[in-house]
Design goal:
Length: 343
């Protein structure tokens, strides 16, 4: 398996990108293709022992920054590491693409300029993976589509279910809609119409869930529009950081607190490990015609290594082919919904 890695993706590139790739090549036995400025990548790679590992460098003369506008870089930087990396996957020279770069740019380049959409997919979706109580769940969309239609939500459910079962190892994924109440009929008109379609779609739809239910592992796939999803994810991230910062402050206020903190440190580390996004590494962009895993710009080497593991699982699970089949099976429901909307 050949995993293509954007060596210029993280905020501190190419250090974490290269180190994480070396760790993944050694631990998971995958071949790595590092795409980026060849001089910088070679210099960074020289710090690591790569004997016995399959690591190749493909030069990309341009780099996309976090400040670049997604709608512009698709055409203005054709030599970027994102363009070149996704083209390698498109042309069959790589099985998956991993980046911790500009998410909007990755979505634009994948959808409009390189991989394109899987036939039948209305809109690709960005996702995130949460792992709580030793069970993983996937949330989507978290920002690609701020305004959605019910038939898109059905496709998000199908794609999320496929990933949950094929890459995360879930058996018969429980699919739910995020809403302001569990009862049938709750939520916006989008949620209500989506619920009606999902009940006819063939997925294992269990109804609505509230945010508290998400954190209680009551569903494996949580579907929402991109606006709600983006707000929820940013809220969860901020809440986690704030909570651990408050704990850190309180456990260093006096001698007794410091002593208690030392005793509790192993437990705190285990809890933090469950909510640390770097332990997941990255999450899939679903709906494009290739495996694309996106990590956070702040990713360290461990996060990059784990993102490559996500890519490996997605390839082994034949995610793209399974989504294509799932979309075909759900297309009558989506087509009927589109016709009703048009009328």
């Amino acid at each position: 398996m050949r995993i293509v890695v954007d060596a210029m993706g993280t905020d501190q590139n190419p250090g974490p990108d290269v180190e994480g790739s070396v760790l993944a090549a050694r631990e998971y036995g995958v071949a790595i293709v590092l795409v980026g400025d060849q001089v910088q990548v070679e210099r960074e790679l020289a710090y690591h022992d790569v004997s016995g590992l399959s690591i190749e460098i493909v030069h990309a003369p341009e780099q996309i920054t976090m400040e670049d506008k997604p709608g512009v870089v698709g055409r203005s930087k054709p030599g970027s590491s994102m363009h070149v990396g996704m083209q390698l996957v498109r042309d069959g020279r790589g099985d998956a693409f991993v980046t911790a770069g500009n998410t909007g740019a990755a979505l634009s380049i994948a959808t409009l300029h390189t991989l394109r959409r899987i036939p039948g997919v209305h809109r690709p979706a960005l996702s995130t993976i949460l792992s709580l109580r030793n069970r993983s769940m996937i949330l989507l969309d978290i920002g690609a589509n701020t305004d959605c239609r019910p038939e898109w939500m059905v496709q998000f459910a199908v794609m999320g279910g496929v990933y949950s079962e094929r890459a995360l190892g879930t058996t018969l994924s429980r699919v739910a809609l995020l809403s302001n109440g569990e009862e049938e009929g709750k939520g916006s008109s989008l949620v209500q119409e989506s619920a009606e379609l999902l009940s006819q779609s063939g997925v294992n739809f269990i109804g609505n869930v509230e945010p508290k239910d998400v954190l209680a592992n009551k569903a494996d796939v949580i579907v929402m529009d991109g606006f709600v999803g983006n707000v929820m994810i940013k809220t969860l991230e901020a809440m986690s950081r704030t909570l651990f910062e408050l704990l850190r402050q309180e456990l260093t206020t006096d001698l007794r607190s410091k002593a208690g903190g030392l005793l509790l440190r192993p437990a705190f580390r285990r809890v933090y490990g469950q909510v640390d996004p770097f332990e997941i590494g990255g999450a899939p962009m679903l709906g494009v015609n290739g495996v694309v895993i996106i990590g956070h710009g702040r990713s360290n080497a461990t996060a990059i290594k784990n993102a490559i593991r996500q890519a490996q699982s997605a390839v082994n699970g034949h995610i793209v082919e399974a989504i294509r089949d799932g979309i075909e099976q759900s297309s009558p429901v989506a087509s009927q919904a589109h016709q009703n909307t048009s009328e």
